Structure formats: structure tokens, C-alpha cells
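Feature request disguised as a bug report, sorry. It would help if multi-protein outputs had a clear separator. Right now it looks like this:
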Amino acid sequence: MEYRNPVFRLSLMAAAIVGLSACFDSDSKLAVEVPEPPATEQPESLPPQPELATFAPEGQALTAQINWTDYGVPYVKADNLESLGFGVGYAFANDNICILADQIVRFNSKRSLYFGPHTPGTTDNANLVNDFGYLALGIRDNAEQHFEDLSDEAKALLNGYAEGYNEYLARTGSANIDPGCAGQPWVQPITPMDLLTFSQGVALLPGAANFVQTMFIAAPPGQSFEPMPVAGAVAEPVKTNISVRGIPDPNPTEAGSNGWAIGKDKSASGKGMLLANPHFPHTGNQRFWQFGIEVPGSLKVVGGSLSGMPGIVNIGFNENVGWTHTFSTAEHFVLHRLKLNPDDTAGTSYMVDGEPVAMTTKTHQIQVATGPGSFVTLEKTSYHTQFGPVIVVPGQLPWGTDFTGDAVAYTINDANLPNFDIFDHWLGLNRARNMDEYKAVFEQETGIVFNNAMAVDKDGNAFYTDGSSVPNLSPDAVEAWQNDLFHQRLSDAAGLPIVPGDSALFMTDGKIPFERAPQLERTDFVQNSNNSYWLSNPAAPLELSPLFGPTGVEQSYRSRMGQKLLAEKETLAKDDLVAALTDNRNFLGEELLEPLLAACTAQGVQPVLVGDELVSIKPACDALVLWDGTMNKASAGGMMFREFAIEFGKDPQWQVAFNPADPTNTPRELDANSIVMRQLAVAQQRIVEAGLDPAATLADVQFVERSLPDGSPSGNRLPWGAP
């Protein structure tokens, strides 16, 4: 489309946004009471959705109004989606330009160009790995090939957001922005294609993005994986000394959340309520950014989104529906174990249903900064199959002969490669007027990427689904895999799903559709705290494809705390939801503290043997006497219990074992034996060796501290409560 010179209007709003009942705080916590329905009688079926203007009229400049609250939350109002994206892009750049500028560089494979081959202060070649990895995944190529296939709504949001970001940069000047990136050559105007590439990279964060190293070192048996200089005197591979230590973790940051959707039968007021408690990082590109949006008569939403989300809200509420997400246990990718063609000595073909299939290759080039104004161009080949790109984890997932004596190779098949539903899916949720419209979005789109989704509408209907992208193996393939003892053991050892790659039966067909995904609609509640879909409501357990996560398994303490809070009262008021967020109750403490104190008091000053050392646990016991059972900043002894809980988690001592028939009440009842006393002693030792007092409050020992310009601590500390 033709780009237009934007005009921007800015104003300040001194009061908080009105008309929506909400409570926000700096920990990205959100408790929402969905407004009461209008007093007038509602028709049985809603009229068609009001028309939502997409692009600004031809020849008309993009305009948007931004009102900032006293606490710095922007509310963006515009007449069409393109202008709305423009305003959100401007506001986000005002708050976080360095974050998005850095991620645009990352997913466009330009880190080595701007920063050299290594992360600062190391020789890790991480930038080389990043750049070649995302080129191998082809996210920029996918964006360029499919941009024109996007809906007009998605294009409008991307176009407007890029223009808004660029307008902020042009008005402010690259030297006058956040000092973290001011004046840097990599802070440049962006394009809609950059944003689409960025979104495709974000979609791979729970999957293939963690395997870029394994793709970097993937080379046929006997061949070097090292990149080659394209020109110059050096004609040998560049030594990078890259090593992969074990199979990657698909959730390395332990991203998680809590979410409740309270229906009319569980709500004290008879109105739907939502609790959204995302646990994503407080820094970096996965930090939530809070804002509001409005296109008068068509769209009005308040909430928060990940960096770079072009004009739409990920977690939030409109006048009719509130929704939230938690990180899903579903498998967002599968690994395939290929059997190599025995007649191919090069190891670059594999067998499918008895027939050989040749791998394909892609050759990639990157520029690498070698000094001020100097660069070298490196070239590298990646290998691809019908089942995805080839990966290697030495000693575990080889390309060559494995422990069985077979010649094999492994690939990764990510359901989010690509995912172009992201923008339309969340826009649909932003516009939903009731639960039927909310659910209909999931029937049409699969853009939630890696999340469980919980929602409640103004009529008090609560709904849960695992809306994430899961590789669509046919039910026959899943059954065959479950009955394949070898691949089940291989999967258990890897901690990831490994399926056969020698049969077309195990080829995936896009993503599992909504009708085969976990879903539950209730009028009491649905919830999730990062365990699987199984106990979204314990009164109605679900059991579907194992690719969505395990069932019949012990629940995390955080999940059990949530279930306990929901069960303590017959009905819940908004204050109960706020208390659930802010009281910082500790489930394990409530289960263990009383018997633990009795046992350690009985132990007295009699020492506990830890290795070759005798340790008195009286200081630990004295600290726990002071503990109030919460993880608040003022909780003396809270650190002591937390360190004990770490040790207890390694070898739990319960009198009543886990029972799948009673999953919210088991395991239970501490077995206060000598192992528990030793666990307490080990925890106390760790605290003392760190120079800390076991009875210290959490505020004394965990905090954020500002640095001086030279990097030294300033002494200006912000105490931190529950992690």
C-alpha cells in the first residue's frame, strides 16, 4: 500500500481510564470484574458486528490520540485499525524503543553485523548461532512470501505500527532516546515486514528458537559444521568451538502464569470475574506492556501485550468479555527420528515407507563485524527434510550411528513455523461480545501460539481451552506412537516427544484444530496455573491427546494453592480475587509449617549430620517460629522456608502419597523424619554460608538495586517480595 506522512496528536489524561472496573499493579497483575449487563433486555442473538474501519482513507494522514494516565499507561484512540496501530507503535516506542529495536535485529539475523560474533565480554559465538539459526528457520523468508496473504486487518495494524514507531524515532532523534540504545546504528526505522518477521520469531520461543544451536552444529557425518568465509585469503572453516550441552529446554525462563475465570454461580455478585496473573519477565522482550485501545463504536479494550504486538491486546477485557492466558503444557513441536538411507554414504537421504528421500539444503550468508568499519562475510549450509530442519545433540540426538547401531538423524517440526494467525486471532478476542463469539475465534484461527486461554463474559459464562499451536499428528499416529515402546522410552529420556520419521503416518498436517483441543465451559469457574488442561475444573476432569500434556499426574504446589483458594469459599467477591493476588500465601508452608516446627523443636540443639559435619538446626527452627506463612516483604523467616522448600522438593517426604483419584488433596501430611531434618540443615547452611541471617525478612535479602554509571551498586534498593 502507499504510505502516508503521519500526523500525531498527543494529550495527557490525569485520571485513570473510566467505565471499566480493574485493578492493576507494577507486577503485571490484573484483577477484572466484568461490568454488569445493561438494564435493558438483551435480544437472544446479537446483531452483526459493527463495521471496523481498516485503513485510513486514501490520501489522509494517520492520526491517533494518546492519553497517558498518572501512572504512565497510554490509552490510544483512532478512527481505524491502521491509525490505531500507528498510535500504539508510537506509544510503545516512547516507553520501550530499545527492546523492540534489539529484537528486530535479532530475528532479522543481524546481530553479528552490529555486535560482532559474540555476546559482550565472551567468546561464545552466540550472535553467529542466532543469525544462522533464524536464517535456517526461514522466518524472514516466510514473512516476505506470505505478507500479501495476510488479512487487510493484519496488514493495517502492521503498517500503522511501523509508521508510529518510525514517527517517534524521527521526532525524538536516535541520539535523544533511551540511553540504553541512544545513537546506536542498529536503532533504525522499521518496516511492516520487520514486524511480521519479529512476530514469527516470538512464536518460536517455546520451540524451535531454543534449538538454533542444535541446527548450527548439524552437518552430515564426517563434515564440518563451521561457517566458511566467502572471500579473502582464508579458505578454511572459521573455528567457533560451539558445543551443545544436552537437549534444549523449551521453556528456559520458566515462563508461567495463573488465571481464573469466575462464572456467575461462583461469583458473589452473580457477575463474571477474571483474575489474570501473568508471570512473564519484568525485563526484555517478553515483558508485558499495559495500554488501552479504542476505535469508537467498534473496539474498546484495556490490558497488556508482549513487546511489538501491533495495536491489539493479548490479555485484557472489553465491555463484554475478559480473558487471560497461561503458558501451556502442550507440545508445540515434535522431534522425528529419521532412518538414513543405507545406500547413501553421505548420510543426506532418509527412508520414508521404504523409499529414499533426499534432504534439501539452504545456503545462508551473514556479515560479521570484525572491528570498527570492517566486516567479513560468512557462509553456512542448513539441512532440511519433510519433517523439518535437521538438529544434532551430541551423544543424544546424533546424525549418524546411534546407540542401537542404526544410522539416524533427528529433525524438529514446530507447529508455529509459520504462524500468521496471531493478529487476526487476538483482534477477534478483542472484539468478542459474548462467549459464543469468543469461542468462534478459536474455530477460525490458531494464533494464541503457546497459551491456555480462560475467559468470562458479562453473563457469567466461563470458558477454558488450550488454544496453543500443537503439531497435528493424526489420531492413528498418536495411538501408534503411544504403543511404540522404543519411541516412548526415547521420548521419556529426552523429556520431549520423539516420533518415528520413517513413515508418512507421522507427518504432521498443520495444527490440531479447535474441535480436538481441550475445552470446558462452566458457570462456576475454570482455571489454570501451568499444569495441564486435566483439572481446569476438578469437578469435570478432561482427557485428550497426550500432545496437550499429561493427565493423572501430581499437581504443582502453585496449582494446588489456586485450587485451595477457589474451594475455600462457596462464592467469591472481587476483594477475594485481589487478596488471592496480593496476600502471597504459600501452599507448602500451610501444609508443612506446623509439623515441621514440632519436629525441629523436638530436635532442639541436638545436631544433624550433613556429610561429615554436625549442624545445629536451632537457628532455622527459631527463624521458622517467626514466619507468618506468607512470602511478603516483611515475612521474617520466609527465606528460610523457601530454601528448605528447595531441598524438600528434591526428595519430598509425605505420609499420604499422590492419588490420581484425589489430586487436589494429595500428597499430604509431612513425614517429619531424619531426611527432613537434614534438608532443613542443608538449607540453613546455604543461607549462613552466603552471610545471611536465617531469620531475615524477604525485603532484607531480595531486591532490585540501581547501578551507578560505572556499574557499581548505588545502595538504592527496591525490596522484592514473592518471586
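(second protein starts here, but nothing in the output says so)
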Amino acid sequence: MKRYFTIGMAGHIDHGKTTLTKALTNVDTDRLKEEKERQISIELGFAPLHEDEELQISVVDVPGHERFIRQMIAGVAGIDLVILAVAADEGVMPQTKEHLEILDFLGIRNGIVAITKIDRVDEEFTGLVKEEILEELKGTVFEDVPFILTDSLSGKGIEELKELIIHTLKEQDTRDAKGAFRLPIDQVFTVKGQGTVVRGTVYEGKVEEGQLLKIMPNGIETRARQLQVHHQPAKSAFAGQRAAINLSGVSKEDIERGEVLVSSEHFSVTKTIDVAVKMVGDLEHIVKQRMPIKCHIGTAEVMGKIVFFDRNELSNSEGEILCQLRLEEEVVAKRGDRFILRRPSPQETVGGGWVIDPNGEKYRFGQKTIEDLSRKKEGTPKDRIKAALSENKVLSLSEVTVKTSLDELTVKEILHEEDFLRVNSKEFTLLAIKEAIEEEIADRLNEFHLENPMKQGANKAELLQAMQNQYPKMLVEFVLNSGIEKSAFQRTGQFLQNKDFYPHVPKSWQKRTDNLLAELKKDGYKVKPFDDYYASAGIPENLKGDLKRYLEDQEIVVPLDAQNYWHGDHFREAVEELKKSTDAEFEVGHAKEVLGLSRKYMIPFLEKLDSLGITRRAENKRIWI
């Protein structure tokens, strides 16, 4: 399968990130008037770098100025590889160091150092800059990354850098496109004639044109009306791609950067998060208990407090600290998500880490809480299996072992516990997921019954299709069949109903329907065209189709042909009378004598008997079956 990656440019202001991006992609990502005037990047810039049969690579150019650190974090939060730009004539600068710390905290492990503007200095000076960078990278995750010497204006090193990026990503695992879709929004704008558009990097899963989505944390429902990848229309977008999505039913004012577009409600919306945090190596100010912090998670920036359970302050880096973030606004988070913590005043990055549990609770101060958080951090084998199944919905034994790094025997033992459910001979799910699907089917059927009370039920194929963006089709079918077996749902042919539902005429139209049926019954065998009865009873045009189908399905009326209907009682009486008064076979003339009908009604009646399998025609005779 084709793989999709987004890489980021990071580094100090005026170290050539935007110019390097343009040299690699031929796209100027500084598009704002203010950016042109001030010659600095203020907002995130995006450009396509490379595409072939195997790979599609996009570039995010992030601002280097300290005032725009929020935009920088939002841009690099979803990248797979970083290009750290360091100017040959300046070397390592304050934002070089801060960007490095941020990249480390966000768990970005793949990088390339691009020493830019090499034509401005001599070879000896470039060598000194490289030594300075190597010293700065010691002890960081980028300690062993490759270096490329570049000059964007002359083109030196550009092709080599591009080839190195492609080669590195070919060796790198791509993001998971199988799970639920999630896109943290980093830009919101309107397009004339199209409406609201959001843009971001697809963290995981995939999205398709026309798919129902939710904007979290507010739960606003919307639909992906159109998709674009690199300004080109697309039917779908996958994990690792930059995507622009035209949303229906929402205005620009309904959405903010930092919100998240998802296809599933299984992502936690939370304000209290249990976390593992590391602080920066040289804290300038003490981090105190319940100190106000800015938390950057995904593309969101939220104020909150940091809560320690084993100390009241922190003055230097002490490895990984288990603590809690209590935020002022809700965010979307899941276990393993990365975040950055910054002090609001004076503004500085103080640390970062990863989410242990997005649904934290209030705990007592003391060692016991640290021990509990430590166990939760490590995650019991059962916790890890539950997390894997929560994300993927259904997995085989081998898939569970790979995703949890547990041995097969342990996985087998745990999957036999009551929290888990075997779907088929190979695959498993969580009992909680089965119950959630069952509840959703019931809700969807209930909604269908309320809107269509006269219909037999919802079409099974349409129901499965409506739910396939949230759950695998096979899993929904499994839950559905299980529900039918235990009578939670009913099935009539291709139609599904909730257990207590039966088709019925809405109370508001019952009297008019009764009048229609009374008039039809009064006319006996010699009926008027059926539409005349609708008109006489005052039944509106938009109700006719559903009502006619309901009356037919319930055999309250029987169509002889497209125009003429008999009341079901009269039809059954006619069949009994004809059967009683004829032999095993009979002719049309005999039937006309028995029922006293003209050919206008007699011929359609007999043809109806044939179509229902009550009689069989043999030349000019009918034979009872």
C-alpha cells in the first residue's frame, strides 16, 4: 500500500526554514501579507515535497520566532521526521534549543540537521558550526542524526537532502490508518461558494468523502463534503497526510484551531489527565505545586495547573515524574498522546511528556498515588490488550500479541476472561464494544421507526453501510446476529426492527386511514381507482407511498393491478367463495358466474391468484395449487 508522511522544518528565526522549503518544493509557504513585509513566518506553511507509487511526502514549515511557539508546536505535533535548520553564519540559537526540547518531548525520533546558508561562510567556519551542533545534540534523541550542508539560493545540497528524506522515510513505519480517524485542526477558513474548510495532519485512521464526522470536544456533527490533499481533490485521506476538508452544516465561527475532527466517539474528552512528565534540562524558574501552565496537546493550547502527588516544587530535571494536569477547558486525548508544558509568564517551555490515562480522577497526595500511577503507566497486560482492542475494535490473536508486545500464552489466557469476546474462530473484541454497537443499532433502529412508523424496518445493508466508518462490517453483523438470537432485534426478510416495534399508522393519520378503508370495504368488489380513495380521505401526496406499502405489507389491502385494490377481507372472501364453488380446475366463465364480476375485475383477480401461487394457469383454465 502507498504510505503517507508529513515532515517538519524546525529551528531559530531567520535560519532559512522557509527558503529551504521553497528550494525543496518550489512553493513559498509565507503567504500572508504580514509575513512578506516582516520576512518572518507567523502561521504554519505547507507544501508537497515528493510523490511516487510508494510514498507521498508533505512539508510543514513552522515559525521560528519565540512569540509563535504555539504555531510551531501545532505544526510539528503530527510529523514523522524533522529537518532541524541551523544557519551556518549563526549556529545554535535560543529557539534551536527550545525546538529541540519540544521535538524530544513530542516523541519525534527521526531527524536530519540541515546546515543552511553555507555560501555565507567559509568551510572552516561551517566545520565549527557543525561541532557546536554536535555538542548541543549530545544526550538528545538527535545525537546520531545525519547532517547535510545546504544553500537554498545556490541549490547546494538540496537534491542530496531530498534524497536523504525519501530514503529515511522508506525505512520508517507509517502511522496507523486502520483505527478511528482523528485530525487535530490547525487551520479554519472559508472558501467562497464552498463554505467552511478545516486543515490539519491526519494523526490516525482515514477519512472519506461524504463521511459523517464530529468536531470534538463540543460534539458538533458534520459531514466531509469534499477533501483535498495538496490542493487536489481526493476521495479519501490517510494517516500521515495533510488534508483540507470542506465541512457541511457548520460555519467558521463554530470551529477553532485546537479542536479535533473524529469519526468515532471513543476518544476521551477530558480536563483531568494523568501524565508522565520530563522537565527541561536547565529550568530557569522553580515549577511549583498547582502552578498555572499552558498545555499544548495536538493543536490545542489550554490553560491549567500541574498537580504533584509526591512533592510541592521542582527545581531541576529529575527524570520522569508522575503527576496530573487539571485543565480549564476540555481536550481530546488518548493514552500515549504527547504534550508540551509552557509557563505563561515568563514565557518558557518547562517540560513535556505523554498521557498515561486521559480520564484521571482526584487522588490523595502521597506515595500510594505514585505507586498507583506507576502501575497504570506500565499498564497491566490486560490494560494493554483492552487499549489495543479499544482502538482497533477487533483483532486476531497474532495482531494482539504484536500491538501489545505480550507473549501469545499470556494473551490467550487474558482473552478468555469475561471482558473479552470471541467474534469468530480467529478474532476477538471487547464485551464493552459489543454492548456499544448493540446500543447504537438499537438507537438507529429507534430513530428509523420514529421517522418511518409504517415501514417494516430499516434495510440491513443500509444500516451496515451507515456504521462501517465506526466499526468493521463483520463486527456489526456479529453483534446484529447475536441480538436477533436473543430477541433484542427482529428480522423480516431484509428489514430489521427493534424487538417491541410493529409497523403502524401514525396516530395523526389513523382516522383518515380508517375512513379510506371503510369506503373501500363498502364498495366491495367493484372498486374505484385507489387514488380516488386517497383523495376522498384527504391523505396528502407525500404520505401515499408509505401508507400504500404499509397496507399491502399488512395485507389490509390487496392490489389487483396498478389502479384497483380490494380490501383484504373481500379478497380473502372471494378466494374462499371461488374455491368452495369450483372443482380442482375451472374456467374464467365459471368464476364470473360464482363471483358476479365483469372482466374488468375478474381477469386482474385471477392473475393475482396466479402471482400469489394460489392457482396456476393452464391454457384457458386455472388449477388450484
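Even a blank line would do. Unrelated, but nice: Residues 592 and 602 are 7 Å apart (CA to CA).
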